[in-house]
């Protein structure tokens, strides 16, 4: 598995290159969640082993929160890793990086994994419940099936 700090660094650096601005923290967390889900869709394996927490605005990685605030997300993954996951990264940047942070937050609120981590919490609470990789895998299967059906209906290529 890959180092989540390096994956976050890659996403932050690519975002800066593509959009000419620093990625905000909320967007980084959401893009990492969608990256993990996309890796499950495309490779059937998680990209990294860090656990997301189901906070009120969506999935959050505590390790990334600290790295973002301390401005220490500067170590890139190897070229081999980038190449291995190029299609995952490209899909995330094509479909999610263009959206604003609040739209990504709303999207993440539709995920079973986030909803299950929020059980018993008030909407205003961040909570400390880890999102289960098994639930993220179910979200990935749902998206995979949706893409398949849309392709069968000739709505996407």
Provide key terms for this protein:
single chain, 8 helices, mainly alpha, 157 residues, 4% strand, two-stranded antiparallel sheet
Radius of gyration: 15 Å
The number of helices is: 8
Largest sheet: 2 strands, antiparallel
Question: Which residue ranges are poorly predicted, with pLDDT under 50 across at least 5 consecutive positions?
Answer: none
Tell me the β content: under 5%
Distance between the termini: 30 Å
Structural class designation: mainly alpha
Oligomer: single chain
Domain module count: 1
**Major beta sheet, strand line-up:** 1-2
- DSSP strand count: 2
Q: Can you write the helix and strand succession as a string? A: HHEEHHHHHH
Helix % is 55-70%
Mean pLDDT: 96
Query: What gross morphology would you assign?
Result: globular
Describe this entry's structure for a reader.
Helix 2 crosses helix 5, helix 2 crosses helix 6 and helix 2 crosses helix 8. This protein is mainly alpha-helical and 157 residues long. The radius of gyration is 15 Å and the shape is globular. It starts with a helix and ends in a 5-residue tail after the last helix. Strands 1-2 form a two-stranded antiparallel ribbon.
């Amino acid at each position: 598995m890959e180092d989540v700090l390096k994956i976050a660094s890659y996403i932050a650096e690519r975002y800066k290159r593509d959009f000419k601005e620093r990625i905000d923290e909320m967007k980084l967390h959401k893009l990492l969640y969608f990256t993990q889900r996309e890796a499950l869709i495309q490779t059937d394996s998680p990209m990294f082993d860090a656990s997301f927490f189901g906070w009120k605005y969506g999935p959050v990685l505590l390790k990334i929160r600290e790295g973002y605030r301390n401005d220490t997300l500067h170590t890139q993954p190897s070229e081999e890793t980038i190449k291995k996951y190029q299609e995952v990264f490209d899909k995330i940047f094509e479909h999610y990086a263009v959206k604003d942070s609040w739209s990504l937050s709303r999207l993440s609120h539709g995920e079973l994994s986030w909803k299950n981590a929020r059980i018993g919490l008030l909407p205003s609470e961040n909570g400390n419940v880890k999102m289960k990789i098994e639930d993220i895998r179910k979200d990935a299967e749902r998206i995979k099936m949706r893409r398949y059906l849309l392709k069968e209906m000739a709505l996407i290529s």
